[in-house]
């Protein structure tokens, strides 16, 4: 299937899920993350979920990161430049939803992409080769291109892999891993 069809299909499937299922599956994903060989790093970027879009609740994963005394980095988005600005999550960080219901930090301690070692990536679907589909605006491809080449890219998905995405572009940055409630894929 192509990206547009997969995006539509998985967006609809996710919106049909009850919130209780989202919570249960999010906890399973967080627990599955513990099996990855990525816990020797310091700086972890994570997304704050758009609850209206029934995205994975990353709170469970953030608890793991906090328990392991890791630096948690979150972003704000600039829709005019299609870029992201990254901030260290602290006890003093103020979070506010933007016009698209994305929870974002309101300022704080800035972190440059070259300091980020692991990125947890939201997505709608992914394939068996690690190609991913988000909302189609290119924010994460732009952000990942600014990170070190060795940054570890981990997708988080409520659904299992599709066999193939037809229209992958050269600028699309594939995943290293993808965690689902049932299993973890390595690419």
UniProtKB/TrEMBL annotation:
What does it catalyze? (6S)-5-formyl-5,6,7,8-tetrahydrofolate + ATP = (6R)-5,10-methenyltetrahydrofolate + ADP + phosphate
Name the Pfam families for this protein.
5-FTHF_cyc-lig (PF01812)
Task: Give the main EC class.
Answer: ligase
Which cofactor is essential here? Mg(2+)
- Mind listing the GO molecular function terms for this protein? 5-formyltetrahydrofolate cyclo-ligase activity
Q: Which UniProt keywords apply?
A: ATP-binding, Ligase, Magnesium, Metal-binding, Nucleotide-binding
Please name the InterPro entries in this protein's record.
FTHF_cligase, FTHF_cligase-like_sf, NagB/RpiA_transferase-like
Q: What is its EC number?
A: 6.3.3.2
Which protein family is named in the record?
Answer: Belongs to the 5-formyltetrahydrofolate cyclo-ligase family.
According to UniProt, the name of this protein is: 5-formyltetrahydrofolate cyclo-ligase
